[in-house]
Prior knowledge:
about 200 residues, alpha+beta, five-stranded antiparallel β-sheet, four-stranded antiparallel β-sheet, 3 helices, 9 strands, about 30% helix, about 25% strand
Amino acid sequence: MAESNECFNIGSTVTCKTCFNEDLQGEVLAFDPHVKLLTLKSPSSNGRSATYDIHMVNLSYVSQVTVMREAAGSPLPSLPSLNLSKLSNRAKKSIDEKQRLIEAMQSGVSPIGQKLFLHIRKTMEEVKWAGVSILVMGQVIISPPYQIENVKEQKEGKESNSKTLPYVKKLVDKFHQDQQSLSLNNGTSATPVVAEVQPVSQ
Length: 202
């Protein structure tokens, strides 16, 4: 086992001989002396110049470590400060959304309604439940059974935007086309094979 009580500076080049008698050489990306874990970066084995191989080496299974080039110890780069207010608002928004989804499920929203809600949320942020209906940007409401003909303008909603209604209809139409394709791929519409039975002569 290699002596691992030393410290490896980030950027140093080292060679490790593993218990399989294999030599690994690379640049030190990280070193944890507590668990004896050394992370090395070496040129890509597939020959691509834009990529690298990353090796995580447990020094407990290494017989020898040789420092080929020592990097000067440099202070770690300072981490960017976190915007705690923004993170808190994002967490609250996510919790509120999950709560609305739970409430919708408890209100008896069908699985297709839940899937459509999530589908719309991929492209539009301002989507929420209004009972068992889906309210988009406060302007368009989608009522059960969530088909394209159930997409209507919300009269008492925000100021109407002529582009929102047709866009939401396209999203709903695309969702149902995708669902139909999934059903076809799962074999639900496959033509049954019927075997013709001939009478057996005595």
